[in-house]
Amino acid sequence: MRRISRITVAGAATASLALALSACGGTSTEASSDSKGGDKGLAIAYDVGGKGDQSFNDAAYAGLEQAKKEFGYSTADVEPTEGETDADKEQRLVSLAKQGYNPVVGVGYAYAAAVKGAAEKFPDTTFGIVDDSTVESKNVADLVFSEEEASYLAGVAAAKSTKTDTVGFVGGVDIPLIHKFQAGFEQGVKDTDPKVKVLSQYLTQTAEEGGFSSPDKGKSAAEGQIEKKADVVYAAAGLSGQGVIEAAAANKVWAIGVDSDQYKQEALAKYKDSILTSAMKDVAKAVYNLAKSVEDGKPETGIVRGDLKTGEVSLSNSNPKFADDTELQDAIKTAKEKIISGEIKVKSS
């Protein structure tokens, strides 16, 4: 059952607070009050790239939509603004909490300071942060994933699929989180076929430079790797990954998607035959599970990790050419079993 205090707080939300929220990035979706008398539930604040990135943020939105449908309550999802500060992010989360939303989730490691600050101000609200494990608070859930494990499997797929013995990795921003994707991918390639060369590069040093939000940068990087004979390119670059996929399709080589099953993404439909697979992490499930835990009166807190064993990281099988390749599927299955058993230790840096 949802807590009475939450209903009371939600009912007290005012028009001025709604305006404050709008000023802090804008709400792209907010349901009207329902039969619960204005009870409000899950709210998410997007990372760089915002809604429509066909990747990380859209996965969080899918979790919000599932919670909204199942629990029948009001939800909100809020866009970031260009050049915003930690204080701006914190104000966005505070505004959502003031209006009675619970839980409130910051989508992305960049929300760490903001979540910490907002959680201190609203100890009765549950906060979540995706892709960061540094916020230690009794009312915060750190929703993290073993991305390196899915990336290892992507490396196996790349090594088994290349005909030029050269594959590529494009990282959005040169940070520890994306190093996990690179490390797992490179290890998976080398363990599968040591003679395969991996070309790796990052688009920017900081997110502010557009590493996660610039398809043109992704396209240019992929084209450079393809010129060097890479015929499978894996991108961990958010919205920038669309450019990598576009370049792969134009040059008739394979792309490997990330976070969501990009083969199924409507915006990428014209390129889908070039998307071999995607190294997925189930941000949707993590966000939904946090909402459900609050709904059930037993909010998740602390580090909540998804990995191959829990099924929250995986490779997608949507492309029939990938799914029907028996030799490739056998290699991936074997690697997956060895990772889960601990026989293979996947590097995260």
Describe this entry's structure for a reader.
It is globular and about 55 Å long. The strands form two sheets. It has a seven-stranded mixed sheet with strand order 1-3-2-4-5-6-12, sandwiched between helices. The chain has a six-stranded mixed sheet with strand order 8-7-9-10-11-13, sandwiched between helices. Helices cover 41% and strands 20% of the residues. With 349 residues, it is an alpha/beta fold. Helix 2 (15-23) packs antiparallel against helix 4 (86-98).
Chain-wise SSE layout:
Elements: H1 4-11, H2 15-23, E1 27-30, E2 40-45, H3 56-71, E3 74-78, H4 86-98, E4 104-107, H5 112-121, E5 127-130, E6 140-145, H6 147-161, E7 166-173, H7 176-192, E8 197-204, H8 215-227, E9 232-236, H9 241-250, E10 254-259, E11 275-281, H10 283-295, E12 302-306, E13 313-315, H11 320-323, H12 326-341
Parallel strand pairs: 2-3, 2-4, 4-5, 5-6, 6-12, 7-8, 7-9, 9-10, 10-11
Antiparallel strand pairs: 1-3, 11-13
Summarize the structure.
This protein has twelve helices and 13 strands. It is an alpha/beta fold and 349 residues long.
